[in-house]
Amino acid sequence: MPANNTAPAPQASSSAPLSLDPDNFADYQNTLFEALMDTTRATQFLNPAELDFYKASSPGFDSRLQNAGDRILVLCNKLIAHAADSSASGRRALAKRDAAGFGNDEDLVERFDEVVDVVDNLLEMADVNLDEVTGRLLKTAPKLPPTQSAMVLQVASRSGGPRSSVNVIHSANIQRPQLHFEDRIDNSNRPFVRRITHKPNAKRPLDYGLPGSDDISPEMRSHLETLRISDVASSQYSLPHPYEYEIQNIDYPKHMFAIRPEQLYDTMDKTPFTWVDTEEKLNELAKILDGVNEIAIDLEVGNSG
């Protein structure tokens, strides 16, 4: 058997491991990165498809590989447990596992999403803390999810020069507009209840499908009464969309399918503009819009500041 078919064994570091403390953190960090790079380079020689061959051709390779895998698994369990203890969401992810942690590599692969939950939480916490240190996120600002914090993107220069940093602010110190809505947003897991009291442009009344409606069969009315559903307010079950019938039986106007020649917009100098700032001008605009079948609205917002 040629000697070059055997994967080289990783060389252990001869230097004693450093203890982590504030005085030698830089040295500890460099040593840690060097160990990670050595491990990464060593794994490049191991093809998973050839592991069985290496185990059969190299005495002791199987036992050393199993021993290294067990040590790495123990380290992973310790890291996940330590990270999970730092936050409530991490503890919830950790609670999914048994007391012994991940038992083997297959167990870790099958439940890898739990590891992702803990790591994601660590990254979010680091993002928020970095924003507080750099001043992007004020400590007195409203408490928002970590995903609402500032984010820094590295943008490459077209001329080949150094990259520049661009701050992308995700409402770091701004309250969400929906907090000021008169109708509070309800995202709870409860049955859908209609809030509207009247139904414009209706083909069926608002009580369509309820016991008080004339549009259901006697059998269905009896069934709904058995469920104690007499109107919208008494329903303990999700009601259909109030415009369900109109949506399912929509009749599109013929002018929507007519092919018309393209009409391009004019230049700014040739386009007349009217600033609508009074109720009278708004009523005039409404009359104009009532007489057309199609309108074009430019929703693009440009901000050079």
Automatic annotation (TrEMBL):
One of its GO terms (biological process) is TRAMP-dependent tRNA surveillance pathway. Residues 7-21 have a biased composition (Low complexity). Residues 1-21 are annotated as: Disordered. GO terms for cellular component: nuclear exosome (RNase complex); nucleolus. Residues 37-135 form the Exosome-associated factor Rrp6 N-terminal domain. One of its GO terms (molecular function) is single-stranded RNA binding. InterPro entries: Exosome-assoc_fac_Rrp6_N (IPR012588), RNaseH-like_sf (IPR012337), RNaseH_sf (IPR036397), Rrp6-like (IPR045092). PANTHER family: EXOSOME COMPONENT 10, POLYMYOSITIS/SCLERODERMA AUTOANTIGEN-RELATED. This is NUC016 domain-containing protein. It comes from Blyttiomyces helicus.
